[in-house]
Inverse folding.
């Protein structure tokens, strides 16, 4: 329940931010809009990522923090190919209780360190507002520490976002996504790493 409330608050906060920006940019000229959504060059963005684990992962993990670099490569009007690489540290909960044959023990969950690499498509439905879909692989940097028997897993990430214009090709890119993975432990169906994430990045034209 707490995770659901946190996720709802995250989405509502982003929606309010996007609506406020839309009101501020309502008077933007048509020529400026075309420049925004159909760039004639690559946009590189550097961002901060944060998230809230979902599903079984939320039983042992509170939140995640990290960063990422993304390139948006224009291929058609309002359509970009994206390439994204980053780092996620999923923070474990403290003082978890486990029942063992010898009794109940208390332990802290070891944080999961991942290196995700993704590629996909980003399409602007209306000026500044986009939908994005990416897929790729997440590489476990501390596989043995968290008990994984796989070094990597397939990941997918549908996203919606909004670009706040700063002038020229400079933007603040804010997006909310759901990121899911396949199993990191072959025999354990609950070893997927899934979360709702927020990315806020500074983007500039190359």
């Amino acid at each position: 329940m707490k995770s659901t409330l946190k996720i709802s608050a995250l989405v509502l906060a982003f929606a309010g931010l996007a609506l406020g920006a839309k009101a501020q940019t309502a008077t933007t000229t048509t020529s400026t809009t075309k420049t925004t959504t159909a760039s004639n060059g690559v946009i590189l963005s550097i961002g901060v990522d944060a998230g809230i684990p979902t599903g079984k992962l939320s039983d042992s993990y509170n939140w995640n923090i990290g960063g990422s670099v993304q390139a948006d490569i224009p291929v058609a009007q309002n359509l970009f190919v994206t390439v994204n690489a980053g780092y996620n540290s999923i923070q474990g909960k403290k003082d978890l209780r486990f029942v063992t044959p010898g009794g109940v023990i208390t332990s802290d969950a070891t944080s999961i360190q991942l290196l995700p690499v993704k590629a996909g498509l980003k399409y602007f439905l209306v000026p500044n507002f986009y939908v994005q879909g990416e897929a790729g692989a997440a590489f476990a940097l501390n596989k043995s520490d968290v008990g994984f028997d796989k070094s990597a897993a397939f990941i997918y990430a549908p996203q919606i976002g909004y670009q706040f214009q700063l002038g020229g090709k400079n933007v603040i890119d804010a997006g909310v996504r759901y990121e899911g993975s396949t199993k990191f432990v072959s025999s354990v169906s609950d070893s997927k790493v899934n979360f709702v994430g927020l990315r806020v990045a500074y983007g500039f034209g190359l």
